[in-house]
Specification:
alpha/beta, single chain, seven-stranded parallel sheet, Rossmann fold, 349 residues
C-alpha cells in the first residue's frame, strides 16, 4: 500500500524532546515501512525519522506553535500533490488537529481518506463526506466522538517503541513520579498535595511551555520550593523521561474529574519500564491499567491511600511490562493496516 501520514506542525517528527502525536506518527511510519509499504510523512521542516528505510519526508515549513496556521499553510502545499495520479490509490491518513484533508475529500470523493483524532472532540458536526473514516485512540475516546457526531468511529490504541523504554527489575528509588504536561487537568497539584501530606518524596516532570496557564506552573514551582520532598524538574528529553520511568518507585497520573484522557502514552511508557502506575478513572486510563495487576485505578479522594509501600510492592514489574506489550507500535500498526484495507476495499465506515 501507498500510505501518506499527515502530522501536525507544532513540533517535528520525531520530536526533539517529549511529544505525543508526533511520536505516534513517527512510530507508525517506521513500522509501516518495515512491513514493506510505501510511506510518505508530511511534517514540519527539520523532521527526522533517522534515515529509516524508504520513508519519504515532505517538509511543509518550519514548526509553528499555532498548529492551525501551520496546517493551513501545509495544506496549500500538499493538496496538489495528493491529487496527482501518483497518489490515486493511496491511503491518506490525517493526524492533524484541523483535519483539512476533508476539504480535499469533499471535492474529490475518489480519495481514500481517514483520520485519527488525538484530543477531545473539536467539532459539533461531522465532516460533510459520505464516509468520514474517523479513528479514536481508545475505546472511550472513539465512543465519545461517535456519540458527539452521530457517526461510526473505530479505535486503534496508540503504540510506543518498547526499545526506548527498557525493562529492568533492578532496585528503584523511593521517589514517586508525575510526568505530564503542567496543566491543571493532568493533576500535578493533586500529586503534589498527596505527596506532601504523606511526607513522601516526588518529582514533577513535564512540559511547561505549551500550557494554557503559566500562573498554574508558577504555583507548582512555589509549592516545590519549600523543602517538602517534591522537586520541580520541568520539561525533559525522552531519554531522561525513560530514566525517570526506569528508576522511580511509582508513576502517578491523577487526572481531574473534568478531563477525559483520550489515551495516556506516559502510562504505557511507565509500565513498559516495569514501573507500577496509579491513575484516576479518566477517559481511557482504565483501559490501559490492569487494576491490581499493573497498577491501580483510584478515585481522587483515594489517592493518598494508595501511596503505600505494601500496595506498590504488590505490583510485579514484569506484570507491568507484560501489560505494556498490548500497546506496542507494532500492535498499533497491525490494527491500522486492518482499517486501511477496509477503506480501500469498501470505502470504510
Amino acid at each position: 500500500m501507498k500510505i501518506v501520514l499527515i502530522s501536525s506542525g507544532v513540533i517535528p517528527v520525531f520530536p526533539n524532546g517529549y511529544g505525543g502525536l508526533e511520536n505516534v506518527v513517527g512510530n507508525l511510519a517506521v513500522c509501516l515501512d518495515r512491513i514493506g509499504h510505501d510511506v510518505y510523512v508530511i511534517a514540519p521542516d527539520g523532521s527526522d525519522i533517522g534515515g529509516v528505510g524508504n520513508i519519504k519526508l515532505i517538509g511543509c515549513g518550519p514548526c509553528d506553535p499555532d498548529a492551525r496556521a501551520w496546517e493551513s499553510r501545509a495544506y496549500e502545499k500538499y493538496a496538489p500533490m495528493l491529487l496527482s495520479p501518483e497518489f490515486e490509490d493511496a491511503i491518506i491518513h490525517d493526524h492533524t488537529w484541523a483535519k483539512a484533508v476533508y476539504l480535499l475529500k469533499m471535492r474529490h470523493t475518489r480519495l481514500n481518506v481517514m483520520s485519527t483524532l488525538h484530543g477531545m472532540l473539536p467539532y459539533q458536526t461531522p465532516p460533510p463526506v459520505p464516509q468520514c473514516n474517523m479513528v479514536g485512540i481508545s475505546k472511550h475516546h472513539a465512543e465519545t466522538i461517535s456519540q458527539g457526531l452521530k457517526i461510526p468511529v473505530r479505535h486503534v490504541y496508540n503504540g510506543i517503541d518498547l526499545g526506548r523504554y527498557p525493562f529492568g527489575e533492578g532496585p528503584r528509588n523511593d521517589r514517586y513520579l508525575f510526568l505530564a504536561r503542567m496543566t491543571p487537568f493532568k493533576g500535578a497539584h493533586l500529586f503534589t498535595k498527596a505527596i506532601v501530606t504523606k511526607g513522601l518524596k516526588g518529582d514533577l516532570v513535564g512540559d511547561d511551555e505549551m500550557v494554557e496557564d503559566k500562573g498554574f506552573v508558577e504555583q507548582l514551582m512555589r509549592a516545590c520550593g519549600s523543602g517538602n520532598g517534591v522537586c520541580y524538574r520541568g520539561g525533559v528529553s525522552r531519554e531522561r523521561a525513560a530514566k525517570f520511568f526506569r528508576e522511580s518507585k511509582c508513576y502517578v497520573l491523577p487526572c481531574t474529574g473534568g478531563w477525559q484522557e483520550p489515551f495516556g502514552l506516559t502510562v504505557v511508557e511507565a509500565m513498559a519500564s516495569g514501573c507500577p502506575v496509579i491513575v484516576t478513572p479518566s477517559g481511557a486510563l482504565p483501559e490501559l491499567v490492569a487494576d491490581g495487576f499493573s497498577g491501580y485505578v483510584v478515585q481522587e479522594d483515594q489517592l493518598q491511600d494508595f501511596l503505600d509501600d505494601d500496595k506498590i510492592n504488590a505490583i510485579s514489574p514484569m506484570d507491568c511490562h507484560l501489560r505494556a506489550l498490548k500497546f506496542s507500535r507494532e500492535e498499533m500498526t497491525k490494527n491500522y493496516e486492518i482499517l486501511y484495507r477496509e477503506v480501500l476495499s469498501g470505502g470504510g465506515w
